Amino acid sequence: MSDAAVENIFDNNFEFITLSDLKPHEEHDQNHAVNLASSISKTGRWTTPIIVEEQTGTILDGHHRFEAEKLIQLKRIPAYLVNYGDPSILVTAWRENEIVTRQNVLNAARLGRLMPQKTSKHSFCKTLPTCSVPISELKKEARS
After folding, report:
1. Residue 38 is part of which domain span?
2. Which of 11, 13, 69, 91 is spaced 20 to 30 Å from 127 by Cα?
């Protein structure tokens, strides 16, 4: 796969997503979410976008950041929207002897039957891009 094809996974797909548009597929560790929210609040900047399946709003990477968003009471969260059918996105299980498929992930989000934390592992052929967005901007309502 060429570098250009890999780069296109994230190019032009950066958005600010509202909480209500997102669907988790895994449970999270509340203590980790609280610590993350504290760290984000202290720096005053959001630096790591979540990764979201573009058709369904399913969170692929960033469940703890999603929960931190709720704790900080943000209106929007930086996200990269991706096509889950892209062959450069791999989904595997964290634990041995467990099988996780794209359909398992999408069904868990759609039905609200969350998988245990750290069930699915999404891998991307390119390092996830970062951002630097002031928290004050994310507390504002989306512009029409």
Report:
1. 3-138
2. 69
